[in-house]
Amino acid sequence: MIRHVPLSRWQAAVIPMQPPLSDFENIAVLPLADTEMLLAAHYYPLVVRLDGPCPELGFLIQRSMLARALTAADGRWLGAYSPIALRCFPLRLMRPPSDDPIADLELATFKLSVAKPRLLRLKDESGAPSKDLVAIYDGLKSIWNSRRTLGPALDLLLVAGLLVPLPGAGGDHRPSSFHTIDRTRVLSLSAVALEAMTRSSFAAIEVMTALTVSQIHLHASIKPPVAPPPDTGAAAAHHAAGMNLDTITPWLDTSALFPGSWAADAALWTATGPAGVASQDVTAPATPPRAG
What gap in Å lies between CA 100 and CA 118, rounded to an integer? Predict the structure, then answer.
């Protein structure tokens, strides 16, 4: 079992940094920053934790929950992207940041699995926090500060009833503590509900998308079932009608790289576009604006 101790109580001048995922069977999930959420969804199953004081977005790393292993038999890392929390491990923030890394961080204690781990020096010659420690601290602060964006978005998904527990999450966590998106319920959302979710911010839709995309990385035993949406035929017809490419007029903004291309493309589309588009008013301005 991994324990965490305040960094201020660490007596040594350096701490060992654990190689990625070499001994993480006791850690099921690590938190995500809002800036890396969509990227991480391509490589990890994302979940919402509901076992704390507020909902928290994270990514699963416990082998039993993953569709494929993230490390090879010899310990080589197979993931294409390492999220911030993984790069900062074994350090994490234990309280709101106060710009004092030594006071704010805590350290996960673990049994080393390599003979010569990478060492992180805590302080420089002047006694101030080292540059490497400050860099890790800044990364962990970005995760903490993401709560201002992700918290309200996760609350919306929770209130809308779009989150469902993963069956049999395992480990030391209750199965109901890890949640994902119920795609059947998402497909049943009305246009009015979607409009309400995006009135103040698109964060809820972005989180919903990331959670949905990432489900492909879940192990089959905990992947939520998906039922066909109601009235599939009508929904498909409505979707096709709304995505008719013949009704879309493309625009390419002018730039320093392609000056005046907006006018040229508008004129070309007017002359050669599909029926019904040429009659639209796509007259370009006499002098297209230039970037810069």
Answer: 23
Distance CA 253, CA 259 (A): 9
**Residues 74, 93: contact at Cβ < 8 Å?**
no
Give me the helix-helix angle, 147-159 and 131-145, nearest 10°. 30
Q: What is the pTM of this model?
A: 0.73
Cα–Cα distance, 144 to 97 (Å, whole number) = 8
- The phi-psi region of residue 276 (left if phi > 0; otherwise alpha if psi is between -120 and 50; otherwise beta) is left
- Type of residue at 41: A
Max intra-chain CA distance, the chain: 77
CA dist., res. 133 & res. 147, Å (int): 22
Instruction: Provide the residue type at 106 as one letter.
Output: E
**pLDDT tens figures, 58-101:** 999 888 889 988 877 776 777 789 999 989 988 999 999 998 99
| Beta carbons of 69 and 25 less than 8 angstroms apart | no
Sort 150 into a burial class: Cβ within 10 Å, 0-12 / 13-18 / 19+. Answer: buried
Tally the C-alpha atoms within 13 A of residue 212's C-alpha that lie toward its C-beta.
15
Confirm if 45 and 66 have CB atoms less than 8 A apart: yes
Q: Which residue has the tokens 């106060």?
A: 98
Report d(CA 48, CA 68) in Å as an integer. 20
* Cα-Cα end-to-end distance for the chain: 57
> How far is the CA of 15 from the CAs of 19, 110, 285, in angstroms?
13, 11, 63
Nearest in space to 71 (alpha carbons), one of 23, 12, 7: 23
CB atoms within 10 A of CB 291: 10
Distance of CA 121 to the CA centre of its chain: 30
Confirm if 164 and 178 have CB atoms less than 8 A apart: no
Choose the most confident range, by mean pLDDT, from 69-73, 171-175, 247-251: 69-73
